User: Fold this.
Amino acid sequence: MARSYVHEARRRVGPKRARIGPIVARLAAEHEDATIALRFRSPLELLVSVMLSAQTTDVNVNRVTEQLFVKYRRPEDYLAVPAEELERDIFATGFYRQKARSLRGTMRVLLDEFDGEVPTRLEDLLRLPGVARKTANVVAAELGDVQGIVVDTHVRRLSQRLGLTRQEDPVKIERDLMKVVPRADWGRFPHLLIWHGRRVCDARRPRCEDCVLTELCPASRI
Ligand code: SF4
Assistant:
């Protein structure tokens, strides 16, 4: 996109602070069902699911955890089997060696420092082995203690297209979003962008002709 065209597009849609309200409202109306796609019944299952979801789809994780959570119910259970057995049990999620190592390390810290409970404070979650900011944000938000905005590949792409950030780094994107998205919407905002990204604003072929955000989006092709 030529620079002048980008400038013109930004001018056409107006400042992001004025657009964010309508963007959230329209996406919320469009994707009423936008919630986390991972299936879990406890904070521990949530944490494990999110850790397993790195580099794979939520559908794939749900397929694996359906069996996994029958066998592994408490943090102790992940440590009671040989590492190779856990690796086999999560094999289908990919990167199984690394994920098994992170899971076992996390269970050890949960038992040693958190009485076997999953903490909700971001700084505590970030102390768990293999838990990075995105995972911590997802877990905290789902447990009702939203402290940031989850930035995954969809959130990154849509935030950039919608002109809410010019950054590439997820931590900097999150910082930009936290300045413009009202705090009350920090939890649902990423879900809305993720579902909109999956259904309409595809990475390679955004379907602008079917999008409810065309006149609010500087990247609109309409
Ligand atoms: S108008 Fe097009 S580029 Fe903008 S959010 Fe909608 S689909 Fe994506």
